[in-house]
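Hi R.,

As promised on Friday, here is the backbone we talked about, encoded as structure tokens. Could you run it through your design pipeline when you get a chance and send me back a sequence?
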């Protein structure tokens, strides 16, 4: 199955007619507004902090830290690009592990006393770059994403999974060759981990970050706990128990790092894991009901926002005002998480026009935002919109369907997009992310991530040839 490329939908009429064909509701503005009162340029208040405009850089890892968890020049380049993007909210920079066994790869950043100064350096670099380009950082809000990768931990060897799980999973356990209870985290293990999150949050505050994101998305531990319906004990079963991890971390941070703001990035819906079908198009790995999708309706491919709604109500109660919505997981259903025309090498061909996936995330976010107008909500999954990203983003902000437009893959190929849009400059078409997924394929094969097709810096790196060879081999 192939789908019309977004770059061919050159006029508003063509774009709208494709959406109509798909039966998808996705509102967009035909003209972009300019000036300080334009929807994307207006500041946004987040508790005590002012965010200078409506663009947010989503956390984007590069698999390029040192083995002991410090940034390298590649990490610094990426953070510096975040700074010169013009976006005024930096949601976490990238996933940073709170301790070694929670790293998703042996090159993931780690926050502890030994890496502290280097992590401070990253934030300072981002802010210096931003100040140089835009004159001030008074309205720039920078947070750090704290994580434990749980089921997807690979702390020591790129090829060796060392999962730490919340519960036995009928589909995902076999995929990771888990055959017994040994990877399960006990309640006592989780209590220790809560302490590690609090220690990392304290360090984050000292490092000058305004907030930390307690990551609850993409199949990593925080997210997996939310679907621990069958987990016995105090961290499983009821929603109250499944959110105990978050509540205890929050209480610890309030006590140990007062003044530090909190945010949560959460997969607000999930589907059953997918796999390649006979022609490599993605198919659900099981049919006839699926009970492990947080925000799912029990069918495996439908949404029920009742629990995510209760989760956001809890955030409000905990005085957590910053929320970033996302969906699913890049490991088991990437088409709902990061809609793409070209799958990563270990993925599957898109089972739907990726525009459907974009609209699904935008709609779910809008439904939640309307019920929680007081929360600052950042949306995700916009990169596939390509030329239409600013038009859809402006409309979503204007309609109150989201507060900030999050940028993920687009910022790897085209970091200056927010600045260009806000200044009314024409988009640099050659830099627009076309969702080739090399930024995902590379790390899946042990290489650093980056935009190999479009960023001249990565085009020139030796890994590009390795990547081409790997992709050719995967296609055979
Ligand atoms: C290479 C790569 C690295 C990513 N790293 C992270 C991460 O560290 N933390 C996180 O929450 N999401 C991460 N994501 C997901 C993105 O933040 C974002 O949700 C996703 O790419 C969809 O947004 P987009 O359509 O703008 O790309 C990553 C995505 C990619 C492609």
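Update: got your reply. Pasting your designed sequence below so it's all in one thread:
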């Amino acid at each position: 199955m192939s789908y019309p490329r977004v770059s061919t939908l050159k006029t508003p009429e063509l774009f709208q007619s494709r959406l109509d064909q798909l039966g998808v509701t996705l509102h967009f503005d035909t003209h972009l507004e300019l000036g300080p009162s334009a929807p994307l340029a207006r500041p946004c208040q987040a508790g005590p902090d002012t965010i200078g405009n409506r663009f947010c850089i989503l956390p984007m890892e590069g698999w390029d830290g040192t083995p002991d968890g410090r940034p390298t020049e590649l990490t610094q380049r990426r953070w510096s690009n975040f700074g010169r993007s013009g976006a005024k909210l930096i949601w976490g920079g990238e996933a940073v592990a709170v301790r070694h066994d929670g790293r998703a790869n042996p090159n993931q950043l780690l926050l502890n006393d030994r890496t502290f100064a280097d992590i401070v350096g990253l934030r300072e670099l981002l802010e210096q770059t931003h100040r140089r380009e835009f004159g001030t950082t008074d309205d720039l809000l920078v947070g750090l994403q704290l994580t434990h990768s749980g089921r997807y931990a690979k702390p020591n060897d790129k090829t060796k999974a060392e999962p730490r799980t919340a519960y036995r999973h009928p589909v995902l356990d076999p995929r990771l060759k888990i055959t017994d209870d040994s990877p399960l985290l006990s309640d006592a293990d989780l209590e220790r981990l809560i302490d590690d999150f609090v220690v990392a949050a304290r360090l984050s505050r000292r490092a000058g970050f305004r907030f930390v994101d307690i990551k609850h998305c993409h199949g990593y531990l925080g997210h997996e706990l939310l679907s621990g319906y069958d987990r016995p004990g105090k961290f499983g079963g009821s929603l109250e128990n499944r959110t105990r991890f978050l509540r205890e971390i929050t209480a610890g941070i309030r006590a140990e790092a007062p003044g530090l703001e909190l945010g949560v990035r959460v997969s607000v819906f999930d589907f059953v894991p997918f796999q390649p079908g006979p022609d490599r198009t993605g198919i659900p790995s099981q049919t006839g009901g699926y009970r492990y999708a947080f925000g799912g309706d029990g069918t495996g491919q439908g949404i029920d926002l009742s629990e995510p709604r209760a989760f956001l109500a809890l955030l409000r109660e905990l005085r957590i005002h910053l929320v970033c919505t996302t969906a699913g997981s890049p490991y088991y259903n990437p088409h709902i998480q990061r809609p793409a025309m070209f799958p990563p090498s270990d993925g599957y061909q898109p089972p739907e026009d990726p525009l459907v996936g974009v609209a699904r995330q935008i709609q779910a976010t809008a439904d939640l935002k309307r019920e929680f107008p007081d929360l600052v909500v950042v949306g995700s999954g916009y990169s596939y919109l390509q030329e239409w990203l600013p038009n859809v983003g402006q409309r979503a902000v204007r309609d109150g369907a989201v507060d900030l437009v999050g940028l993920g893959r687009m910022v790897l190929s085209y970091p200056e997009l927010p600045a260009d849009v806000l200044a009314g400059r024409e988009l640099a078409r050659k830099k627009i992310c076309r969702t080739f997924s090399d930024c995902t394929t590379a790390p899946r094969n042990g290489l650093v991530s980056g935009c190999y097709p479009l960023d001249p810096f990565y085009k020139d790196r030796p890994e590009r040839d390795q990547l081409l060879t790997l992709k050719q081999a995967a296609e055979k």
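One thing I noticed while checking it: The two ends are 19 Å apart (CA to CA).

Thanks again,
M.
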